[in-house]
């Protein structure tokens, strides 16, 4: 088991806190799936902290909500029953997103925008691969609604993919700029 440095713990906590702010700051509730800045935070966590710490920061955020802190984007905003919300699947998807991005951006010295953007896009694919089947399963098997795959895509994918690609571009620009700046000051960690 690897040991975490004070820097690792601090950065993980900072990104978990940023996830809380992102979930609460900009919320536009659609019919079932809300718009939020959580995907941007997950992408930045993976791009700046690396796979383990990026994913861990998202897991800490999820655990905060599951123990009852009101940190999630939709009512009831927290508690263990939140796992029965149709959108809960996106949350572990964000942890997977951060992990995949961190893996893809290892050895990122002098990486260009395209590598960062494609890594962020791969992260988007991950949270949709986890979140959309969960959305379907909860709506169908728990809530007893009859929904088709096309309806699930209309609820949880179509309204968000264009904005998620914009967030991916923003995350790529920010993560690349911050990584270069940290490297210039000799503060880059072992991502």
Topology:
Elements: H1 6-25, E1 28-29, E2 34-35, H2 38-49, H3 51-66, H4 90-104, H5 113-142, H6 149-156, H7 161-184
Antiparallel strand pairs: 1-2
Structural account:
With 191 residues, the chain is an all-alpha fold. It has helices at 6-25, 38-49, 51-66, 90-104, 113-142, 149-156, 161-184, and strands spanning 28-29, 34-35. It has a two-stranded antiparallel sheet with strand order 1-2. The radius of gyration is 16 Å and the shape is globular.
Give the low-confidence spans: none
Average of per-residue pLDDT values: 92
Strand numbers in spatial order across the main sheet = 1-2
Beta-strand portion reads under 5%
Which short descriptors sum up this protein?
single chain; 191 residues; mainly alpha; two-stranded antiparallel ribbon; 7 helices; globular
């Amino acid at each position: 088991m690897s040991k975490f440095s004070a820097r690792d713990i601090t950065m993980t906590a900072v990104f978990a806190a940023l996830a809380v702010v992102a979930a609460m700051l900009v919320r536009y509730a659609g019919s079932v799936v809300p718009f939020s800045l959580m995907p941007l935070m997950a992408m930045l966590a993976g791009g700046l902290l690396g796979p383990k710490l990026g994913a861990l920061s998202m897991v800490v955020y999820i655990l905060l909500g599951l123990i009852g802190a009101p940190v999630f984007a939709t009512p009831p905003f927290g508690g263990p029953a939140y796992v029965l919300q149709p959108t809960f699947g996106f949350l572990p998807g964000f942890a997977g997103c951060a992990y995949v991005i961190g893996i893809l951006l290892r050895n990122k010295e002098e990486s260009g925008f395209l590598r960062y953007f494609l890594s962020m896009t791969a992260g988007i694919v991950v949270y949709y691969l986890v979140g959309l089947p969960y959305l379907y399963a909860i709506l169908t098997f728990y809530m007893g609604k009859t929904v088709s795959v096309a309806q699930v895509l209309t609820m949880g994918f179509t309204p968000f993919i264009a904005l998620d690609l914009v967030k991916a571009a923003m995350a790529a620009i920010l993560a690349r700029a911050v990584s270069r700046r940290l490297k210039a000051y000799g503060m880059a960690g072992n991502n």
